[in-house]
Amino acid sequence: MTEYKQVTEEDLAVLAGFVDRERLLFGDEINEEYSHDELASERVYPSLVARVTSTAEVSKLMAYANEHHIAVTPRGAGTGLVGAAVAVERGLMIDTTLMNHVLELDEENLTLTVEPGMLLMELRSYVEERGFYYPPDPGEKSATIGGNISTNAGGMTAVKYGVTRDYVRGLEVVLADGTVLQLGGKVVKNSSGYDLKDMIVGSEGTLAFVTKAILKLLPLPKKNVSLLVPFPTLEQAIGTVPLIIKSKAVPTAIEFMEREVILDAEEFLGRKFPDNQADAYLLLKFDGNTMEEIASYYDDTAQICLDQGAIDILIADTEERSAPVWKTRGAFLEAIKASTSMMDEVDVVVPRSRVNDFVEFVHQLRQDIGIRIKSFGHAGDGNLHVYILRDDLSDEKWRELMRLAMKRMYAKARELQGQVSGEHGIGLVKRPYLKESLPEASLVLMRGIKQVFDPNNILNPHKVCQM
């Protein structure tokens, strides 16, 4: 077990020499929110929080922490769901939310350079106002772009556009010893040795500290249309997805949802969903530059859905019609959270053709072990979000049933040739399941990579592949 130095008032005095004291929170000055992320079940207060404003500050903090063997926890907006931003060894937490600026919009190279603390919703608004598009669309719009990069966030548009990694052209990072590195850049192609940039994306703050990102942009699609498609059963709904993909219709998003989650969202938002006649739905979006282009896609998709037993096809071709549907979909997580005392999540990804197998397994599992479980997800890319709800269970019973449910779900995902996480990462709480799902040789390589980047193991210890 690695021993870490705890931050003292003497350390605080030194660090205040290069970070303004009012941006350093020490001891009782630290707000409760810094003790956990959105998961909230794992709570540890850091000894010191530094609210940084520049790469130079991060570099000096990292160099000092490395020299004195102080654990460092990177943190953005704290919206993660796997405990990746929990300061397990207390130590120093570096908060990036003040590093929230656009540094450059390069219209010739179609790139945007930003600091890591910029919120996703602000980034998207900034580029869309100027006619550009940043496609990655994770459900939590108040997350920082640095957090998205650290988890390789996906979201609803991954089926057409891919995930965060596909839009990171370059990174500025600070290594554990304070060294500042530029990785990648504005070039479209790069075959110059190992791709260290891509290694940082998805590493959850364990390899290096992201201080700047160069992001790829696209021209903003001029039109979009959404289809809400009710089905008699979830099996029919999800079974239609491979046929839509095979038809080359190119939807921007394909979401599945069940009536019980829609009812939760209706209660949470205080307004009705446009339709609640069915037990299961597909929600699809198509985008393009003309309505004629989009219609060529969604007409074929609508016919496929009807052929597979869809009850109806509801077309939302204006912002007024589509916004309530997508706002309801975006509220699912908060609605489920509001319906229970505590929850934990499984973020598995399986081949698209096996989504229904997994969802049916979950339905049976909740009957078998007697605990409420709710699910929704990205039918177009096989990423499911399954929530295990505590309700009024005792601490002991909750831990027992939650662990049993997770163990069985991750085993089923492996059986279906899936993986532990599609987009939320491993962090602190999913490590045992990663260990079970990967061969030991893969874990040895991961730990070796961590050792090369961070020999003293100060960067976000106990996360991802480290036990």
From TrEMBL:
<dbReference type="InterPro" id="IPR004113">
    <property type="entry name" value="FAD-bd_oxidored_4_C"/>
</dbReference>
<dbReference type="InterPro" id="IPR036318">
    <property type="entry name" value="FAD-bd_PCMH-like_sf"/>
</dbReference>
<keyword id="KW-0274">FAD</keyword>
<protein>
    <submittedName>
        <fullName>FAD-binding oxidoreductase</fullName>
    </submittedName>
</protein>
<dbReference type="InterPro" id="IPR016169">
    <property type="entry name" value="FAD-bd_PCMH_sub2"/>
</dbReference>
<dbReference type="Pfam" id="PF02913">
    <property type="entry name" value="FAD-oxidase_C"/>
</dbReference>
<dbReference type="InterPro" id="IPR016171">
    <property type="entry name" value="Vanillyl_alc_oxidase_C-sub2"/>
</dbReference>
<dbReference type="InterPro" id="IPR016164">
    <property type="entry name" value="FAD-linked_Oxase-like_C"/>
</dbReference>
<dbReference type="Pfam" id="PF01565">
    <property type="entry name" value="FAD_binding_4"/>
</dbReference>
<dbReference type="InterPro" id="IPR016166">
    <property type="entry name" value="FAD-bd_PCMH"/>
</dbReference>
<dbReference type="InterPro" id="IPR051914">
    <property type="entry name" value="FAD-linked_OxidoTrans_Type4"/>
</dbReference>
<dbReference type="GO" id="GO:0071949">
    <property type="term" value="F:FAD binding"/>
</dbReference>
<keyword id="KW-0285">Flavoprotein</keyword>
<dbReference type="GO" id="GO:0016491">
    <property type="term" value="F:oxidoreductase activity"/>
</dbReference>
<feature type="domain" description="FAD-binding PCMH-type">
    <location>
        <begin position="42"/>
        <end position="220"/>
    </location>
</feature>
<keyword id="KW-0560">Oxidoreductase</keyword>
<dbReference type="InterPro" id="IPR006094">
    <property type="entry name" value="Oxid_FAD_bind_N"/>
</dbReference>
